Amino acid sequence: MAIENTNIRSCEEKEELLLLHSAELLENISQSKEKYRKIIQAGITQWVKDFQSGHIKVNTVEDLKKLIELDIQLQKDEEI
User: Fold this and answer.
1) DSSP 4-73
2) Of 52, 47, 49, nearest to 67 (Cα)?
3) How far is CA 63 from the centre of its chain?
4) How far, in Å, CA of 39 to CA of 5, rounded?
């Protein structure tokens, strides 16, 4: 004996659910980017402190460059 599918949704309901899901995804992505930016900014701050105290030499600037590039990329993504 087959079970009948009684879960029937209209096209409008499906579109509404899809929009809600898309909005939730965008919100989650936005929240993640905010967290990542905080981590990156903390990394930049720590790098500068370490550089000023002499713990980092000029030949290791590549780490700072990567952090700054990540921060800029996240900011660009927010503009879209």
Assistant:
1) P------HHHHHHHHHHHHHHHHHHHHHHHHHHHHHHHHHHHHHHHHHHTTSS-GGGHHHHHHHHHHHHH
2) 47
3) 20
4) 48
pLDDT at residue number 27: 94
Beta-sheet strands, E only, within the chain: none
Name the residue with tokens 């905010």. 34
CB 67 within 8 A of CB 37: no
* pTM, rounded to two decimals: 0.61
pLDDT: which is higher, 2 or 30? 30
Q: How far is Cα of residue 23 from the mean position of the Cα atoms in its chain?
A: 15
